[in-house]
Amino acid sequence: MKKSFTHILIFVVLTVSGQAQQSSFITAELGLLRNQNGFFRLFDGIVDAGVAYQFSILNKLYGGASFHAGFLNYQNTSAKSVLYRPHLSLQYSIHLSPRIAMEPQAGIGYAFVRITNQEYNYKNMQTGVNYSGTLKLRWKSEGKLDYYLFGRYDFIYLNKDDDFTQLEYYRRIQIFAFGLGLHIKPGKYE
Amino acid sequence: MSKSLCIFIPGVIVLLFLGCSKTNDTLVLDQRYLNIADVVEFCTGSCDVEAPWEQSTVLLKGHLRDAMNDSVQADNRIKNRFYLVDIRNGMFIEIRVENDHDQVFDQLESAMKQDIIYVSGKANAVSAFDGSECTKGVVVLIMSTTDLLINLE
Lengths: 190, 153
Fold this sequence. Notes:
The structure holds 2 protein chains of 2 kinds.
Chain A: H1 2-19, E1 24-36, E2 44-58, E3 61-73, E4 79-92, E5 94-95, E6 100-117, E7 122-139, E8 145-158, H2 168-171, E9 172-184
Antiparallel strand pairs in A: 1-2, 1-9, 2-3, 3-4, 4-6, 5-6, 6-7, 7-8, 8-9
Chain B: H1 2-20, E1 34-35, H2 36-42, E2 45-46, E3 57-64, H3 70-79, E4 81-85, E5 92-97, H4 101-109, E6 116-129, E7 134-142, E8 148-150
Parallel strand pairs in B: 1-3, 5-7
Antiparallel strand pairs in B: 2-7, 3-4, 3-6, 4-5, 6-7, 6-8
Protein backbone atom coordinates (compact mmCIF):
# COMPACT_ATOMS: atom_id res chain seq x y z
CA MET A 1 0.00 0.00 0.00
CA LYS A 2 2.77 2.43 1.02
CA LYS A 3 4.84 1.50 -2.01
CA SER A 4 2.01 1.76 -4.50
CA PHE A 5 0.92 5.10 -3.10
CA THR A 6 4.45 6.47 -3.45
CA HIS A 7 4.60 5.22 -7.05
CA ILE A 8 1.28 6.87 -7.87
CA LEU A 9 2.49 10.10 -6.30
CA ILE A 10 5.76 10.09 -8.26
CA PHE A 11 3.93 9.21 -11.48
CA VAL A 12 1.43 12.03 -11.06
CA VAL A 13 4.09 14.60 -10.28
CA LEU A 14 6.32 13.58 -13.19
CA THR A 15 3.53 13.36 -15.75
CA VAL A 16 2.05 16.69 -15.01
CA SER A 17 5.15 18.72 -14.30
CA GLY A 18 6.14 18.93 -17.97
CA GLN A 19 2.78 19.79 -19.42
CA ALA A 20 1.52 22.12 -16.74
CA GLN A 21 4.20 24.78 -16.90
CA GLN A 22 1.79 27.45 -18.10
CA SER A 23 -0.79 27.03 -15.37
CA SER A 24 0.93 25.59 -12.37
CA PHE A 25 2.13 26.84 -9.06
CA ILE A 26 4.15 25.77 -6.06
CA THR A 27 3.23 26.51 -2.48
CA ALA A 28 5.28 26.40 0.70
CA GLU A 29 3.70 26.92 4.08
CA LEU A 30 4.44 26.97 7.76
CA GLY A 31 1.89 26.87 10.51
CA LEU A 32 1.12 26.08 14.11
CA LEU A 33 -0.14 22.61 14.78
CA ARG A 34 -2.82 21.64 17.26
CA ASN A 35 -3.84 18.08 17.99
CA GLN A 36 -7.18 17.01 19.33
CA ASN A 37 -7.84 14.28 21.92
CA GLY A 38 -6.91 10.73 20.97
CA PHE A 39 -3.57 9.01 21.38
CA PHE A 40 -1.54 12.24 21.40
CA ARG A 41 -3.75 14.19 23.78
CA LEU A 42 -0.88 14.89 26.19
CA PHE A 43 1.27 16.20 23.36
CA ASP A 44 1.60 19.76 22.17
CA GLY A 45 1.56 20.48 18.49
CA ILE A 46 4.56 22.51 17.50
CA VAL A 47 4.74 23.21 13.82
CA ASP A 48 3.42 21.97 10.52
CA ALA A 49 5.43 22.55 7.35
CA GLY A 50 4.54 21.62 3.81
CA VAL A 51 5.15 22.05 0.11
CA ALA A 52 2.82 21.40 -2.79
CA TYR A 53 2.81 21.44 -6.55
CA GLN A 54 -0.46 22.07 -8.35
CA PHE A 55 -1.55 22.43 -11.96
CA SER A 56 -4.69 23.41 -13.78
CA ILE A 57 -7.17 20.63 -14.53
CA LEU A 58 -10.17 22.69 -15.48
CA ASN A 59 -11.01 26.35 -15.27
CA LYS A 60 -9.98 27.39 -11.72
CA LEU A 61 -9.79 23.79 -10.61
CA TYR A 62 -6.30 22.62 -9.70
CA GLY A 63 -4.93 19.22 -8.85
CA GLY A 64 -1.57 18.19 -7.52
CA ALA A 65 0.55 16.62 -4.87
CA SER A 66 1.77 17.84 -1.54
CA PHE A 67 3.90 16.77 1.36
CA HIS A 68 3.44 17.94 4.92
CA ALA A 69 5.26 17.14 8.13
CA GLY A 70 3.77 17.91 11.52
CA PHE A 71 5.80 17.86 14.71
CA LEU A 72 4.32 16.91 18.09
CA ASN A 73 6.11 17.10 21.40
CA TYR A 74 5.27 15.88 24.88
CA GLN A 75 6.55 18.65 27.15
CA ASN A 76 9.37 17.90 29.59
CA THR A 77 9.90 14.41 28.18
CA SER A 78 11.81 12.97 25.26
CA ALA A 79 8.63 11.58 23.67
CA LYS A 80 8.13 13.03 20.22
CA SER A 81 6.10 12.32 17.15
CA VAL A 82 6.31 13.37 13.52
CA LEU A 83 3.37 13.00 11.17
CA TYR A 84 4.50 12.74 7.53
CA ARG A 85 1.60 13.26 5.16
CA PRO A 86 2.00 12.94 1.38
CA HIS A 87 -1.23 13.90 -0.38
CA LEU A 88 -3.02 14.15 -3.68
CA SER A 89 -5.22 17.21 -3.66
CA LEU A 90 -7.84 19.20 -5.51
CA GLN A 91 -8.16 22.95 -5.14
CA TYR A 92 -10.70 25.42 -6.44
CA SER A 93 -10.00 29.14 -6.73
CA ILE A 94 -12.81 31.54 -5.91
CA HIS A 95 -11.87 35.11 -6.82
CA LEU A 96 -13.62 37.23 -4.22
CA SER A 97 -12.10 40.46 -5.53
CA PRO A 98 -9.24 41.49 -7.83
CA ARG A 99 -6.89 41.19 -4.85
CA ILE A 100 -8.30 38.32 -2.83
CA ALA A 101 -9.01 34.69 -3.65
CA MET A 102 -10.47 32.02 -1.43
CA GLU A 103 -9.18 28.54 -2.17
CA PRO A 104 -10.80 25.48 -0.63
CA GLN A 105 -8.77 22.33 -1.00
CA ALA A 106 -9.49 18.67 -0.34
CA GLY A 107 -6.81 16.03 -0.09
CA ILE A 108 -6.36 12.33 0.34
CA GLY A 109 -3.13 10.61 1.20
CA TYR A 110 -1.30 8.18 3.35
CA ALA A 111 0.17 9.22 6.68
CA PHE A 112 3.32 7.91 8.32
CA VAL A 113 3.26 8.53 12.06
CA ARG A 114 6.64 8.18 13.67
CA ILE A 115 6.75 7.95 17.46
CA THR A 116 10.03 8.09 19.36
CA ASN A 117 11.22 8.27 22.93
CA GLN A 118 14.98 8.61 22.98
CA GLU A 119 15.17 8.15 26.73
CA TYR A 120 13.98 4.56 26.29
CA ASN A 121 15.43 3.94 22.80
CA TYR A 122 11.87 3.53 21.57
CA LYS A 123 10.93 3.93 17.90
CA ASN A 124 7.71 3.03 16.16
CA MET A 125 6.03 3.82 12.86
CA GLN A 126 2.31 3.60 12.33
CA THR A 127 0.61 4.27 9.01
CA GLY A 128 -2.88 5.00 7.82
CA VAL A 129 -5.09 6.76 5.36
CA ASN A 130 -5.26 10.54 5.66
CA TYR A 131 -8.05 12.91 4.60
CA SER A 132 -7.66 16.66 4.76
CA GLY A 133 -9.60 19.83 4.18
CA THR A 134 -7.89 23.20 3.78
CA LEU A 135 -9.15 26.73 3.35
CA LYS A 136 -6.78 29.38 2.02
CA LEU A 137 -7.18 33.11 1.72
CA ARG A 138 -4.73 34.42 -0.86
CA TRP A 139 -3.64 37.99 -1.53
CA LYS A 140 -3.16 38.15 -5.26
CA SER A 141 -0.36 40.17 -6.79
CA GLU A 142 0.97 40.94 -10.26
CA GLY A 143 4.29 39.39 -9.37
CA LYS A 144 5.43 35.82 -9.12
CA LEU A 145 4.75 35.59 -5.41
CA ASP A 146 1.50 35.67 -3.46
CA TYR A 147 0.91 35.18 0.23
CA TYR A 148 -1.93 33.36 1.89
CA LEU A 149 -3.38 32.42 5.24
CA PHE A 150 -4.51 28.86 5.66
CA GLY A 151 -6.41 26.64 8.06
CA ARG A 152 -6.28 22.88 7.69
CA TYR A 153 -7.93 19.89 9.29
CA ASP A 154 -6.40 16.43 8.94
CA PHE A 155 -7.98 13.16 9.89
CA ILE A 156 -5.72 10.12 10.01
CA TYR A 157 -7.14 6.64 10.44
CA LEU A 158 -4.34 4.32 11.47
CA ASN A 159 -4.14 0.76 10.20
CA LYS A 160 -5.05 -1.91 12.71
CA ASP A 161 -2.10 -2.98 14.84
CA ASP A 162 -3.03 -4.69 18.09
CA ASP A 163 0.48 -4.31 19.44
CA PHE A 164 0.17 -0.57 19.10
CA THR A 165 -3.42 -0.21 20.32
CA GLN A 166 -6.57 -2.24 20.54
CA LEU A 167 -8.76 0.85 20.77
CA GLU A 168 -10.52 2.34 17.78
CA TYR A 169 -10.38 5.68 19.59
CA TYR A 170 -6.59 5.78 19.37
CA ARG A 171 -6.58 4.88 15.69
CA ARG A 172 -8.26 8.19 14.91
CA ILE A 173 -5.89 11.14 14.88
CA GLN A 174 -7.14 14.64 14.30
CA ILE A 175 -4.87 17.62 13.81
CA PHE A 176 -5.46 21.26 12.98
CA ALA A 177 -2.92 23.60 11.46
CA PHE A 178 -3.13 27.29 10.69
CA GLY A 179 -0.46 29.62 9.38
CA LEU A 180 1.08 31.44 6.46
CA GLY A 181 1.96 30.27 2.98
CA LEU A 182 3.86 31.37 -0.10
CA HIS A 183 2.28 30.87 -3.50
CA ILE A 184 4.93 30.81 -6.21
CA LYS A 185 3.81 31.21 -9.81
CA PRO A 186 6.42 30.09 -12.33
CA GLY A 187 3.97 30.41 -15.22
CA LYS A 188 0.70 32.14 -15.97
CA TYR A 189 -1.79 31.81 -13.17
CA GLU A 190 -5.04 33.57 -12.30
CA MET B 1 -18.71 30.46 -5.66
CA SER B 2 -21.67 29.24 -3.64
CA LYS B 3 -21.59 25.99 -5.64
CA SER B 4 -18.02 25.17 -4.68
CA LEU B 5 -18.62 26.09 -1.06
CA CYS B 6 -21.60 23.74 -1.13
CA ILE B 7 -19.21 20.95 -2.09
CA PHE B 8 -16.36 21.92 0.23
CA ILE B 9 -18.27 22.57 3.45
CA PRO B 10 -20.12 19.21 3.52
CA GLY B 11 -16.78 17.52 2.80
CA VAL B 12 -15.19 19.11 5.85
CA ILE B 13 -18.27 18.23 7.94
CA VAL B 14 -17.95 14.58 6.85
CA LEU B 15 -14.26 14.64 7.86
CA LEU B 16 -15.10 16.12 11.26
CA PHE B 17 -17.85 13.55 11.72
CA LEU B 18 -15.40 10.74 10.92
CA GLY B 19 -12.94 12.07 13.44
CA CYS B 20 -15.31 13.03 16.24
CA SER B 21 -17.84 10.24 16.11
CA LYS B 22 -17.96 8.14 19.26
CA THR B 23 -16.30 4.76 19.25
CA ASN B 24 -17.72 1.90 21.24
CA ASP B 25 -14.48 0.18 22.00
CA THR B 26 -14.32 -3.17 23.69
CA LEU B 27 -11.20 -4.48 25.31
CA VAL B 28 -10.52 -7.93 26.71
CA LEU B 29 -8.47 -7.15 29.79
CA ASP B 30 -7.13 -10.57 30.76
CA GLN B 31 -6.07 -12.28 27.53
CA ARG B 32 -2.78 -10.57 26.73
CA TYR B 33 -0.62 -7.87 28.27
CA LEU B 34 -2.10 -4.53 27.25
CA ASN B 35 -0.48 -1.17 26.81
CA ILE B 36 -1.05 1.32 29.65
CA ALA B 37 -2.66 3.87 27.31
CA ASP B 38 -5.33 1.34 26.26
CA VAL B 39 -6.20 0.36 29.83
CA VAL B 40 -6.32 3.96 31.10
CA GLU B 41 -8.56 5.07 28.24
CA PHE B 42 -10.87 2.05 28.39
CA CYS B 43 -11.23 1.98 32.19
CA THR B 44 -12.91 5.35 32.64
CA GLY B 45 -16.54 6.35 33.01
CA SER B 46 -19.17 8.07 35.02
CA CYS B 47 -19.40 7.59 38.78
CA ASP B 48 -23.13 6.90 38.44
CA VAL B 49 -22.83 3.53 36.73
CA GLU B 50 -20.80 0.47 37.53
CA ALA B 51 -18.55 -0.37 34.60
CA PRO B 52 -17.97 -3.98 33.49
CA TRP B 53 -14.22 -3.66 33.98
CA GLU B 54 -14.49 -3.00 37.72
CA GLN B 55 -12.91 -5.78 39.80
CA SER B 56 -11.82 -7.58 36.61
CA THR B 57 -8.44 -9.16 36.20
CA VAL B 58 -6.23 -7.01 34.02
CA LEU B 59 -2.90 -7.73 32.34
CA LEU B 60 -0.80 -4.72 31.49
CA LYS B 61 2.72 -3.72 30.59
CA GLY B 62 4.68 -0.52 30.84
CA HIS B 63 7.79 1.16 32.16
CA LEU B 64 8.41 2.12 35.77
CA ARG B 65 7.89 5.87 36.10
CA ASP B 66 10.79 7.76 37.72
CA ALA B 67 12.80 4.55 37.79
CA MET B 68 16.07 6.36 38.39
CA ASN B 69 14.72 8.76 40.99
CA ASP B 70 15.61 7.27 44.39
CA SER B 71 13.50 9.66 46.47
CA VAL B 72 10.39 8.96 44.37
CA GLN B 73 10.97 5.22 44.65
CA ALA B 74 11.45 5.50 48.42
CA ASP B 75 8.19 7.43 48.64
CA ASN B 76 6.47 4.76 46.52
CA ARG B 77 7.70 2.07 48.90
CA ILE B 78 6.30 3.96 51.90
CA LYS B 79 2.95 4.42 50.18
CA ASN B 80 2.84 0.87 48.80
CA ARG B 81 2.29 1.99 45.26
CA PHE B 82 4.17 2.72 42.07
CA TYR B 83 3.35 4.03 38.61
CA LEU B 84 3.73 2.45 35.21
CA VAL B 85 4.02 4.78 32.25
CA ASP B 86 3.31 4.30 28.56
CA ILE B 87 6.48 5.74 27.04
CA ARG B 88 4.75 6.30 23.68
CA ASN B 89 2.35 8.96 24.88
CA GLY B 90 3.04 9.62 28.55
CA MET B 91 -0.13 8.12 30.01
CA PHE B 92 0.38 6.36 33.33
CA ILE B 93 -1.44 4.17 35.83
CA GLU B 94 -1.16 3.64 39.58
CA ILE B 95 -0.36 0.12 40.81
CA ARG B 96 -1.16 -0.53 44.48
CA VAL B 97 0.71 -3.30 46.23
CA GLU B 98 -1.60 -5.13 48.63
CA ASN B 99 0.74 -7.90 49.87
CA ASP B 100 4.42 -8.92 49.69
CA HIS B 101 5.41 -5.27 49.83
CA ASP B 102 9.12 -5.73 50.44
CA GLN B 103 9.54 -8.46 47.84
CA VAL B 104 7.69 -6.41 45.21
CA PHE B 105 9.67 -3.23 45.83
CA ASP B 106 12.97 -5.14 46.04
CA GLN B 107 12.15 -6.59 42.63
CA LEU B 108 11.33 -3.15 41.26
CA GLU B 109 14.55 -1.71 42.65
CA SER B 110 16.50 -4.18 40.54
CA ALA B 111 14.68 -3.09 37.38
CA MET B 112 16.48 -0.92 34.88
CA LYS B 113 14.83 2.15 33.39
CA GLN B 114 14.32 0.49 30.00
CA ASP B 115 12.89 -2.73 31.44
CA ILE B 116 9.28 -3.52 30.63
CA ILE B 117 7.24 -4.34 33.73
CA TYR B 118 4.40 -6.84 33.30
CA VAL B 119 1.60 -6.72 35.83
CA SER B 120 -1.37 -8.96 36.47
CA GLY B 121 -3.86 -7.40 38.88
CA LYS B 122 -7.36 -6.39 39.74
CA ALA B 123 -8.88 -3.25 38.15
CA ASN B 124 -10.21 -1.08 40.94
CA ALA B 125 -12.28 2.03 40.28
CA VAL B 126 -11.34 5.36 41.88
CA SER B 127 -13.44 8.52 41.69
CA ALA B 128 -12.33 12.03 40.86
CA PHE B 129 -14.63 15.01 41.36
CA ASP B 130 -13.67 18.18 39.50
CA GLY B 131 -16.34 20.41 41.03
CA SER B 132 -19.09 19.70 38.57
CA GLU B 133 -18.61 16.19 37.33
CA CYS B 134 -17.60 12.92 38.94
CA THR B 135 -15.55 10.58 36.77
CA LYS B 136 -14.13 7.15 37.43
CA GLY B 137 -10.59 6.12 36.74
CA VAL B 138 -8.67 2.95 37.42
CA VAL B 139 -5.91 1.78 39.73
CA VAL B 140 -4.61 -1.79 39.62
CA LEU B 141 -4.15 -3.88 42.75
CA ILE B 142 -1.50 -6.56 42.88
CA MET B 143 -1.67 -9.21 45.57
CA SER B 144 1.75 -10.84 45.51
CA THR B 145 5.16 -10.80 43.95
CA THR B 146 4.00 -13.38 41.37
CA ASP B 147 1.77 -10.69 39.84
CA LEU B 148 4.85 -8.79 38.73
CA LEU B 149 7.31 -9.76 36.00
CA ILE B 150 10.21 -7.81 34.63
CA ASN B 151 11.31 -8.14 30.99
CA LEU B 152 9.20 -11.16 30.19
CA GLU B 153 10.15 -11.13 26.51
